[in-house]
Specification:
Blueprint lengths: L4 E2 L5 E2 L3 H22 L11 H12 L14 H18 L3 H17 L8 H7 L12 H19 L3 H16 L16 H12 L2 H13 L6 H9 L33 H18 L2 H17 L31 H17 L3 H17 L15 E2 L1 H6 L18 H11 L2 H4 E3 L3 E4 L5 E7 L2 E9 L6 E8 L2 E6 L7 E5 L2 E2 L3 E3 L2 E6 L4 E7 L4 E3 L11 E6 L2 E6 H4 L6 E4 L4 E9 L3 E11 L16 E10 L11 E2 L2 E4 L2
């Protein structure tokens, strides 16, 4: 069913331009910083306990005991696994002997911690003991296995070493023995999806069809009667923690209230929902099930049409870190978890493999350049878990429904899923630029890069040179065999031109992709996408944004900050007829300009009263200075605002 395939980690090289800066940041700052965090070596930050717990589990299996016990939440293996996957991406791009040695030492610990039957989970070994699998809904054993599998696949792709893969295949065999529809097996599935997509990655590397079959079982068994999580709760003879009454039915939080094929909306915990969607797309594509693919399309469309923030964030409430209902997109209390936006990128790439469509790549780009990138400080050492569209520090400090909204990034978290997820995305960014088949190479993201493809007619070398998103000029040099090249026309672009070997051409456009046939040998193509600042408005079905506007230039959303405009940003207006200009005096990494426009601030007024009768607001002219959303919060804590009042001209 797939029309294209992804590239491998070593197939694409990214070391220049805008993303070259962030890759350098990931490799030089973020990975070492997070390694220290995982070793509980960051001052003034919550301990991770990840490596500590792994060493305890390994020692216990070796017959050693210190008397210490497991510390922290049950899912800490996943934080370490995501760091391992990111570090493998580093090795694929830049061999590093010391880093490889550190990874191998962790793999030694994993091998030592693995139980005789293949079970591998530090919380399970140190806390659950014989009660493994007792609470699939909440205790994350299968989720952690999924992340360890992904790390093992990445390490194998980077180094060719099989030991980690072999460890995880033993773990998968243990899981496959425990779960399924045969007598004596549990008819369960992960409370937190992740294993499904990981099994498909393992299948694509090993070719073992048992992995794909197990993934399909988990996808198709989910939500079947009798509901496994309800049965599990009865067997436990105790009350599992349930979600508040406004999350109804409760199993919607886990996408387990009915079979996936019957679900019409993307519900519940946003990260779980989108990891599940990624696994669903993989299983549908491999199995050829049109019913499963239609389910994936339906859930994707619901998310993008009704539940997506303009920044590419998803998840509108901190209650359950979840989706709520269509068109409910509050700005000041948005959750928009970093992991959820990253999961959206994962799902988008898989959808693109099935059928390249520019609208899907637009969503991937929106999430990547805005919500995902905003989560890390410019020095790579502090992070946002939550990515709101409006920040009022006083509310964050004093109002319970804003407690999750932080006006500045944090060094680390007790639940540190987001920082480790971000670096594995950055280290595997190569996989998101292109997909291809035997005849055509599709470019979804305009990233300064070099790539090699094995096509039907032979090898093709492709070099992309661009300052994007600083400007919309992209030059592509192709050499090697004859092939067809396809480039996305971004949804924000109103005008574009294409030059082939110095001649302007009018190419075919299919599903939003410019397509040209290139002969064997060298070909140079120059693309120019008009990148003027534009105003963005929202569907009037979203009450939060009625009468409001925000600014976008290229893929980048912009916002206002207290550092430039003072406090009470909600008083500001942008007139419809006010020109928006580039502000090169406030350039950011990658040579990204700010934006500036003439606007107004509503004055206090003449009446000293909370409420006024028929007083015409006094609007005072001000200059509005907009910064890219991804850099907000780098100049100290303060207010931030994406959507501001539009003033009809």
């Amino acid at each position: 069913m797939k029309n294209t395939q992804p590239v491998s980690l070593k197939q694409v090289k990214i070391d220049k331009g805008f993303w070259g800066y962030y890759r350098d940041l990931a490799f030089s700052s973020m990975i070492p910083h997070q390694w220290r965090a995982l070793n509980d070596d960051l001052s003034d930050a919550p301990p991770s306990y990840s490596l500590r717990n792994l060493r305890l589990a390994a020692d216990r299996n070796r017959g050693l005991s210190s008397g210490e016990t497991y510390q922290g939440p049950c899912f800490l293996d996943s934080d370490l696994a995501k760091w391992l996957e990111a570090a493998a991406g580093w090795l694929a791009a830049r061999p590093d002997e010391q880093l490889e040695k550190s990874i191998d030492e962790v793999i030694d610990l994993l091998a030592a911690a693995q139980e005789a039957d293949g079970y591998l989970n530090t919380f399970g070994s140190l806390v659950l003991g014989k009660n493994r699998w007792r609470n699939l809904r909440d205790e994350h054993e299968l989720y952690c296995s999924g992340h360890l599998i992904e790390a093992a696949v990445a390490y194998f792709e980077a180094t060719g070493k099989r030991r980690f893969i072999d460890i995880m295949e033993r773990n998968v065999a243990c899981i496959a023995e425990a779960f399924g529809r045969e007598p004596g097996q549990r008819r369960g599935y992960p409370g937190h999806p992740e294993l499904e997509l990981a099994l498909m990655r393992l299948f694509h590397v090993t070719g073992n069809p048992h992995h794909a079959r197990l993934a399909r079982y988990f996808i198709e068994e989910r939500g079947q009667q009798p509901l496994y999580f309800e049965e599990e709760k009865k067997r436990a003879g105790r009350e599992q923690a349930d979600w508040p009454p406004y999350i109804r039915p409760p199993l919607r939080q886990y996408q387990a209230h009915k079979p996936l094929k019957e679900q019409q909306t993307l519900d519940g915990h946003a990260v779980r929902a989108l990891y599940l969607l990624s696994g669903l797309v993989d299983v549908a594509a491999e199995s050829g099930s049109s019913e499963l693919m239609q389910t994936a399309e339906r859930l994707w469309d619901n998310c993008i049409r009704h539940r997506l923030y303009v920044t590419g964030g998803v998840g509108s409430t901190h209650h359950g870190e979840a989706f709520t209902f269509d068109n409910h997109l509050p700005n000041g209390t948005a959750y928009a978890e970093t992991c959820a936006s990253i999961a959206l990128v994962f799902a988008a790439r898989r959808m693109l493999e099935v059928q390249p469509r520019s609208a899907i790549a637009d969503v991937m780009e929106r999430a990547l350049y805005n919500n995902c990138l905003a989560s890390v400080q410019l020095d790579g050492t502090r992070f946002f878990y939550v990515n709101p569209l409006q920040v009022w520090p006083s509310a964050s400090q004093q109002e319970p429904d804003h407690w999750h909204v932080k006006p500045e990034r944090q060094k680390w978290f007790g639940c540190a899923c987001c920082p480790t997820n971000l670096i594995r995305l950055l280290s595997s960014l190569d996989r998101y630029v292109f997909t291809y088949n035997s005849q055509t190479i599709y470019q979804h993201l305009y990233i300064d890069s070099e790539a090699v493809f094995s096509m039907a007619n032979g090898l093709v070398q492709l070099t992309c040179r661009t300052r994007y998103p600083a400007d919309g000029a992209v030059t592509l040099h192709k050499d090697g065999a004859a092939c067809r090249l396809a480039w996305r026309v971004p949804g924000w672009c109103r005008q574009h031109t294409l030059m082939q070997d110095g001649r302007q051409v009018v190419p075919d456009i299919e599903n939003g992709y410019i397509q040209i046939d290139c002969p064997a040998g060298p070909v140079t193509v120059s693309l120019t996408f008009d990148m003027q600042p534009c105003r963005v408005t929202c569907d009037p079905a979203v009450p939060e944004n009625i009468g409001k506007v925000c600014l976008q230039r290229g893929p980048l959303l912009y916002c206002l900050e207290e550092a430039d405009q003072g406090r009470e940003l909600w008083r500001l207006y942008l007139p419809d007829n006010s020109p928006v200009d580039l502000d090169w005096h406030q350039a950011w990494p990658g040579d990204i300009p700010g934006l500036k426009a003439a606007g107004y601030r509503q004055a206090d007024g003449s009446v000293d009263s909370l409420y006024r009768f028929a007083e015409t607001p006094e609007l005072v002219p001000v200059r509005l200075n907009f910064v890219p959303y991804y850099v907000w919060g780098n100049r100290g804590p303060g207010e931030m605002l994406v959507w501001l009042h539009a003033l009809p001209g």
